[in-house]
Amino acid sequence: MRVFLVPMAAMLAMPAMAADADVVLDRIEADRDININVAQSIWNLAELGYRETESSGILQRRLKDEGFAIVAGVAGAPTAFTATFTTGDGPVIGIMGEFDALPGFSQAAVARKQGIAGADAGHACGHHLFGAASASAAIAVKDWLEASGTTGTVRFYGTPAEEGGAGKVYMVRDGLFEDVDVALHWHPGSNNSADIATSNSNKSAKFRFRGTSAHAAASPEYGRSALDGVEAMNVMANMMHEHMPQESRMHYVITHGGRAPNVVPDFAESFYYVRNPDAEVVRETFERLVRVAEGAAMGTGTKVDYEVIHGAMPLLPNETLQQLVHGKMTEVGGVEYTAEETAFAKDIVPTLGRKDVDLSDAVTIDPLSQNHGAGSTDVGDVSWAVPTAGFRTATWVPGTPAHSWQAVAAGGMSIGWKGMQNAAKILALTAIELYQRPDVIAAAKAEFISRQPEGYEYRALLGDRDPPLDYRD
């Protein structure tokens, strides 16, 4: 038998640590109905990026009522805000919260594809849960700071337009994270993981072609089709795929192609994304894409200009923090289904088109591992400004992809709410340990610096533009 001796100081600290945990866990459980109401109100609103006026207002009022100092309309975005509570000098912990929906995802909270009359958007990435859980965690941490007599600051960041609008990038660029010691975030998902994750950086732009209108049958020789410019660009861009780095991704939609077939369109527009794990490769690839657009315009007798819509750095991982988060996730546990939730999940599974779905993944905590995600997030820019950690909880039926009607459905009922509550608890438990563990914060900062290239200076991929408040128009 192996005997482990626990130092007396650690033994004396154990009851206090348990009591500390109870303060935040009890508050989050006590607020369960409030959290659900906040999340469902935002789910019902389903407001798009930079239009989340009511959703942002719900979260601001919730935090203001708890004694947080609100600064609204930060970084040039009317729906962006910060909410700060402080008890004095000490660590500053930031907790991020999102609340934007996605267009084209009207969906009721049922296990079949069923839109909601009069609605077009939906929370297909679960940001209604994201904002509600993060606010709940910040409030619980506030309670703990007061109850424990700990000095420090908890700040909630209301971050709009993550879906293609890069709200956090403008907040980073404006220096709103400069005094933060550690930033925390989470995201809805179909499993429970706190991986040491990286992501793709990306840059997007709308390319606008302008030509000359004419009758497409009677006088086509006088016309110069803007749609021809878009189509020529798309053909050449697809040729680029053969000559891009293996890890790169490029995709597009035609957002405007004309109104009538018998009219040569004088305006057409395409919307492009370019991605790669390396931000510098994204910059280079984007410049190639601009030259493709210029060539397409030259060849079709049209003119082209473009507007950069957003850009995001890749996630800079922090193993020190992820180990801490993973430990808290293990303490909290996964999502256990009731009989009714199991029936809902079993009805969803056949719609996923997969044979590898295991409903037990909802309750399982994935082992801590390193991975790379092909998607992108504006949390990436935050992670290059301050040591950052995040995780996912099972708010969706296992096997559900993000940006799907199945994600909207599960996020609007009790499966999503359970994952939300778990997320709030993990965030709060992580934060209060950070206040008590300056050694962990110091180690996280040392790792943060070591992972950055020598001589690194932050440059936002989207340049110096203002937030694109109309990008969903």
Task: Give the secondary structure arrangement, pairings included.
Blueprint lengths: L7 H23 L1 H14 L7 H13 L3 E4 L8 E6 L5 E7 L28 H22 L4 E7 L7 H7 L8 E3 L2 E3 L6 E4 L1 E10 L15 H15 L8 E8 L10 E10 L2 H22 L2 E10 L6 H14 L6 H10 L21 E4 L5 H5 L4 E2 L2 E3 L10 H7 L2 H23 L1 H14 L22
Parallel strand pairs: 3-4, 3-5, 5-13, 6-14, 7-12
Antiparallel strand pairs: 1-2, 2-4, 8-10, 8-11, 9-10
Helix pairs in contact: 1-4, 1-12, 2-3, 2-4, 3-4, 4-12, 6-7, 8-12
Q: Would you count the extended β strands for me? A: 14
Low-confidence stretches: 1-16
Bin the strand percentage: 15-25%
Please state the CA-atom Rg, rounded to the nearest Å: 24 Å
Assembly of the depicted chains = single chain
From the 3D structure, determine the CATH topology of the largest domain: Aminopeptidase
Please identify the top-level CATH class of the largest domain: Alpha Beta
The CATH superfamily of the largest domain is known as Zn peptidases
Average predicted local confidence, pLDDT:
94
Main beta sheet strand tally, sense and closure: 6 strands, mixed
Please give the share of residues in helix.
25-40%
Strand arrangement, major sheet: 1-2-4-3-5-13
Task: Provide a count of the helices.
Answer: 13
> What would you call the structural class?
alpha/beta
Tally of discrete structural domains: 2
Q: What overall geometry do the principal axes of the alpha carbons give?
A: globular
Do you know the CATH architecture of the largest domain?
A: 3-Layer(aba) Sandwich
Order of helix and strand elements from N to C terminus: HHHEEEHEHEEEEHEEHEHHEHEEHHH
Terminal residue distance: 68 Å
Keywords: Hydrolase, Signal
Protein name: Amidohydrolase
Organism: Pacificimonas pallii
InterPro entries: Amidohydrolase, Aminobenzoyl-glu_utiliz_pB, Peptidase_M20, Peptidase_M20/M20A_hydrolases, Peptidase_M20_dimer
